[in-house]
Design goal:
The chain is an alpha/beta fold. The chain is built from eleven helices and nine strands. The protein has a nine-stranded mixed beta sheet with strand order 1-2-3-5-4-6-7-8-9, with helices on both faces. The protein is globular and about 50 Å long.
């Protein structure tokens, strides 16, 4: 009695490997098939809220939520395969493949249902879960989700692939990477030395660029498919965008919300692609208010 919906507090974790060397002291590596998935679970009896980052990023993108979400909520931030502290080897890097990994992480945590918060690629993964396993999703908060038509840039993604990973690793310097983020992804001064030490440090190590290129190659098809299926998403949803988003234009916010039926848009001014990092206090207030609505 009194147990939060969708949580089995005594569920075993047979595949967990224990503490990892990730950025958060609560980080753990979970064995999913032949890969390892890095998970930061704040724990506790609160209602689970799964946090899914965007392409090239990691669970660190939700550092403010992990620290500051109220005690009646249980934030769980996952490094998607190919990102952060998760494995970057062979695997299914389609949106559907990433969604299946997230579902298996929830199985190991003993969580049947959760709220999902996804930014960009993470928003697409959350939508895929809502379509394929609707019983696992309570509510959705989609932050500039990768679920819109790509237009002219779409065909360029077909040229991507693992073979370009080494080229990107050579071409992209830290300063170039930081400049692109400041120009397109962030309106606020988020990209400082501390940010780069984490984000660039993980991306530049190992095969981060290879995984990103694999995802990009399939992204046009996956985004087009998700956009077509948006009317099938019947969950209460909040669609969040930054007004100055240079990655996915904010004009899509009302269009995505309207196609979903049970969604409403919210636009952050003076903000680009990552409101949860650019305006963390305002974003968390919005998030908690939405999750607590009757």
């Amino acid at each position: 009695p009194g147990e939060p919906e969708g949580v089995h507090q005594q569920a075993p974790r047979p595949e967990a490997r224990g503490p990892s060397a990730g950025w958060h002291p609560a980080g753990q590596l979970f064995r999913i098939g032949g890969s390892e998935v890095h998970v930061v679970d704040r724990g506790g009896p609160g209602r689970p809220v799964v946090l899914l980052h965007g392409i090239l990023m990691s669970s660190w993108a939700f550092r403010h939520a992990l620290e500051s979400l109220s005690a009646d909520l249980r934030p769980i931030a996952i490094c998607l395969p190919g990102h952060g502290w998760s494995s970057r080897g062979p695997g299914d890097y389609s949106i559907g493949g990433l969604a299946r990994v997230v579902a298996k992480v929830l199985d190991q945590l003993g969580i049947e249902q959760a709220d999902f918060v996804g930014n960009s690629l993470g928003g697409a993964v959350a939508l895929r879960l809502a379509l394929d396993s609707p019983e696992r999703v309570r509510r959705l908060v989609l932050i500039a989700p990768a679920a819109v038509p790509l237009g002219a840039i779409g065909p360029l993604l077909w040229l991507q692939g693992a073979h370009l990973g080494p080229l990107y690793r050579t071409l992209f310097t830290q300063s170039l990477f930081a400049g692109i983020l400041r120009r397109f992804a962030y309106q606020q001064p988020v990209v400082d030395d501390a940010y780069l030490s984490v984000v660039w440090g993980r991306l530049a190590s190992g095969d981060g660029w290879v995984a990103a290129a694999k995802i990009a190659r399939q992204l046009q098809r996956d985004m087009r498919g998700l956009h077509a299926e948006l009317p099938k998403v019947l969950k209460r949803s909040l669609v969040v965008w930054g007004e100055q988003d240079g990655i996915i234009d904010a004009r899509f916010a009302p269009l995505v919300a309207a196609r979903m039926g049970r969604a409403r848009p919210h636009i952050f001014a003076n903000c680009a692609h990552c409101p949860m990092e650019e305006h963390p206090e305002a974003f968390l207030e919005l998030l908690e208010g939405f999750l607590r609505e009757a």
